[in-house]
Structures are given as C-alpha cells and as structure tokens.
Amino acid sequence: MNILVLNCGSSSIKYQLFDMGDDTRVLAKGLIERIGITDSILTHRPTGKDPYKVVLDIPDHTVGINLVMEALVHPVHGVIKKISEIKAVGHRVAHGGESFKESVLIDNDVKRGIEKCADLAPLHNPAHLKGILSCEKLLPGVPQVAVFDTSFHQTMADYVYMYAIPYEYYEKYRIRKYGFHGTSHKFVAEKACRILNMDMYNSKIITCHLGNGASITAIENGKSTDTSMGFTPVDGLIMGTRTGEIDPGALLFLADKEELSVSGINNLINKKSGVAGISELSSDMRDLGEAADEGNPKAILALNMYSYKIKKFIGAYVAAMNGLDLLVFTAGIGENDFSTRQMICTGMEYMGIELDEDVNNKVKGKDMLISKPSSKVKVMVITTDEELVIASDTQTIVEKLVY
Ligand code: ADP
Question: Deepest in the core among 73, 148, 160, 391, taking most CB within 10 A?
Fold first, then answer.
C-alpha cells in the first residue's frame, strides 16, 4: 500500500511517499518552501533517481500538493505511474488538544476538532487543515489520517499536566501541559525495547528527543507519564533558539525594561534564546562544539547549561517513576553528538547509568547500545522516524476500513 505522508506548515509542505510492503520503503521525499511568497521552491528526491528542484510561484497549498502529485508521477522523476496508486494520506498534526488521544481517520468531526485546537497552535493547525482540504479536492475518496504530536502524552495524570494558576483558566482556555514530539518519543521507546527484547509495558523509560526543538519524556509501562514541553513547545529543555523553562517573573521584568510587547516576548523566548542566545554564536551544536574546543567561554557555558538541564530532568523523572530501566537518545543531537551524550551521562553512576565511552564516541546516526554491560540502566541511541510512524498509523487505520 502506498501512503503519502504530509507535514503542512504555513508556508511549507514536507512529504514522503511510502510503499508499506513487507519491507517498507520510501519511494520519494521532498519539500516545498515559500508557499504564498514569490519564487517558491519544490525539491523532489525520488529514491534511486536524481533529485530535482524547480523554482516557481506556488500561491497556496492546493497548488503545492498538486505539484507534489505531478512530481510523483513525472515520466522522468516520478516513482509511481498513476495518482490512484496513492491509497491513503497521513498528516502530521501539531496539536490535538484534549480531544485526540490517538491517531484518527479524518472526517468532518475531526476537521472541526483540529480547527478547535487552532487557538493552541495558531501557526500549525490552520496549515494542517489547508493540507487536509487540498487533499480532499485532489484525491477525492482517498482516506486521510491525522497523527498528533500531542496524543501520546494524553496519558499524563492531572497533577502532572495542570499548572498552578487559577483553575478557571483551565476551564476557560484549557491551559495545561500538553507535550509534543509524541510520535518520536513513542517510536524510539518501542524500537529500543524491540532491539533489547524488553517489555515496554513493564519498564521505566526516559526518552530524550534532542533536535532543534528538544523534549524529554518519562514512559512508565508504555504510557507517557511526564514530558518537558508544556502548553507550548517552548517549555522544558534548553533548545537551539528557545529558552526552555524560565522564571516567568524574569520575562515580566524584561517586558517592562525593554518595553517588549507580547509578540516581542514571543520572539525573545522562541527565536532569540536557547544555546544561540547564550553563545551569541549559533543554534547548531556542531558550531558550538568547535567553538568550545577553541576555548570560547560562551559556547562552553551554553553546552554546560544544555547538558545540565537534561541531567536535572532525568533525575526528576527517575524520582517520579521510582527507577529507570532504559535511557534513549534520539534526533539530530541525540543521535550524532557523542560529547553531549557523554556530558549528560557523566556522574550518573549513582542512578545506575554507566556509559561505555569508547562505544559512545563512535556512534553517529545509528541504533546502538552505548552503556557498559555492568550498567543497571541501559542507554541507547535510536534513530527516530516520525514520518514512518505517521505512515504506519495511517496504514493500521485504513486497513480496518471496509470499503
Ligand atoms: P529538527 O528539530 O529540525 O528536526 P534535527 O533533529 O534535525 O532537528 O536536529 C538538528 C540539530 O542536530 C542541529 O541543529 C545540530 O545542532 C544537531 N546535529 C546534527 N548533526 C550533528 C552532528 N554530527 N553533531 C552534533 N550535532 C549535530
């Protein structure tokens, strides 16, 4: 079964076409950028063929997705013969609020639900809806599935997800912790358990998704019990350009002193902070690693802050779960940056974490156990694949449909 996975942003569309056969394969992937702006770019990467790039005006998502279809069936760059070979579409949806606890087949109620959550993810959910409506037009009758970044965390207890603000604001606006990166946390925990032959439903696991955005999740007996991102994806760990947790009083002080509006504060906490803000150099760990090696004090500070925060969250989640069996690192930094993994895991022997430094130093972008055989807690690097999760959830839901 061929499944098209779409991640529609406000001015971009990321896509992957999967053949979900016995050995699942990516047939093609690509990206459209600058939708609604002049000189939009389509970059199409068919597996086993040369990639190609076109620059043209793409005014909206329907035109964009239509171009994706044309690329997929193109006589030279294409990977399928007819559009009808696409049997289902899986959409990444950023926010499912409290309504969506799992992936769902999209119908009118689901579309209304996604729209209702738009308040909670104003940059993302309206764009996802545009993508869904465009696919309805371009692929009439083809089932579509929504896979939410938030749904895995819907198992958190109320005392974990509530904020200590007047209760009426929860009732009025549903202000609470939601958590994000759910598909990735679930996927890497499952994959690590498969590799280690562990029972996820009888284990205490912490997963660290460390990319441009970063979050950490406590998974007890297969369920997310706590996660570091909150009402928005700015909370928790220090990220490339996001603050992570911060005293809200400091922001009020800054708003006053620097005369910052709501959008000014938004820009500060999302775009100007994180390791980029501290180092005054870069949001990319590779740049910071190089600068730190050359003795740059702000790069060293940023890296120390980054790993210390993760260490603290691990400690908190071990306390909350009363133990830990498995620690997983994933995403760009978690998969590739051995030195950050080492900084996090050093000095955690008390908790039963013993990293095998020789192995850790060599692991880049592959699934691997990096703890010593004597380590009570297993530590693994696992490569994440959120698109694959979306494709498999879509397949599972669509296969149950009776035509
Ligand atoms: P996104 O959240 O955009 O999906 P990724 O998971 O791709 O992000 O992670 C991107 C980050 O991963 C980069 O900003 C960079 O800091 C880090 N990264 C990628 N490759 C390496 C590497 N070889 N060494 C250290 N850090 C890396």
Answer: 148
Ligand 1 centroid, distance to 98 Cα (angstroms) = 30
Q: Which pLDDT tens digit goes with each residue over 134-189?
A: 999 999 999 999 999 999 999 999 999 999 999 999 999 999 999 999 999 999 99
Is 377 close to ligand 1, i.e. is its CB under 6 Å away? no
**Domain 2-148 fold:** Nucleotidyltransferase; domain 5 (3.30.420)
Give distance in angstroms: CA of 102 to centre of ligand 1.
28
CA distance linking residue 133 with residue 151, whole number of Å: 22
Cβ-proximal residues to 329 (8 Å cutoff; 6+ apart), any chain:
208, 210, 335, 341, 379, 380, 381, 382
- Give dist(CA 220, CA 204) in Å, integer: 5
CA neighbor of 187 nearest in space, from 146, 232, 151: 151
Q: Within the chain, which residues score under 70 in pLDDT?
A: 402-403
With a 6 Å cutoff on the Cβ, whether 9 touches ligand 1 is: no
Q: How many angstroms separate the CA atoms of 336 and 314, rounded?
A: 20
Q: Which residue has the tokens 């559009």?
A: 83
Domain ranges of the chain: 2-148, 197-386
Mutate-to-test residue for ligand 1 from 124, 282, 285, highest number of ligand atoms within 8 A of CB: 285
- pLDDT at position 403 is 60
Separation between Cα atoms, residue 373 and residue 186, nearest integer Å:
25
What ligand 1 atom has the least distance to the C-alpha of 289?
A: 25
Query: Which residues pair with residue 378 across a beta bridge?
Result: 326
- Ligand 1 atom with minimal separation from the 210 CA: 6
Q: Is there a shared CATH topology between the 2-148 domain and the 197-386 domain?
A: yes
- Atom 25 of ligand 1 has which residue's CA nearest to it? 337
CATH 3.30.420.40 fits 197-386, yes or no: yes
**Residue 386 in contact with ligand 1 by CB distance below 6 A:** no
Q: Does the Cβ of 11 fall within 6 Å of ligand 1?
A: no
Closest atom of ligand 1 relative to the 331 alpha carbon: 6
C-alpha of 362 from chain center: 25
pTM: 0.94
Task: Report which residue type is found at 337.
Answer: D
